[in-house]
Amino acid sequence: MRMLTVRQPWAALIVAGIKDVENRPWTTRYRGGLLIHAGRKTDAEGFELMEQLGVALEGPLLHGVILGSVNLTDIRRDSPSPWARLGENHWLLADAQPAVRPMTAIGALGLRPAPAGWEQAFAA
Prior knowledge:
Protein name: ASCH domain-containing protein
Pfam family, one: ASCH
Helix content: 10-25%
Organism: Thermocatellispora tengchongensis
Number of helices: 2
Domain ASCH: 4-90
C-alpha cells in the first residue's frame, strides 16, 4: 500500500467516490491500493469546479489525516472524466473506501509507502 497527499476538497471528493481522476504532472509504474491523505492546504480551484459541476460534500473537511483509500488502476492522458485536466497525467481511481476513523499522518510530496499502523484507520 502506498500513500498520496492530496489537497482538500480533492481528497474528500476522491474518498467519497465522486472524483475518479487525480491529475498529476508525473507518472508512476505503481498500480494498486492508495491511501488518500488530506494535506494541510486547501485548493480554492476545487470549490470552483465543484460548483460548476453541481457537486456538494457533507460535513467538515479534515486536514492532516488519512481519509480513505482507492485503487489506482491506470494512468492515461486522455480520460473523458470531467475531473481530468488537459496536459496532466490522469490517475484513474476506483473502489473508494472512506476510513472508519481518519488517522493523523504527516504528508509529503510524491507517492510513498504507507505509514505504520495505517490499517487502524479502517478497523471497525
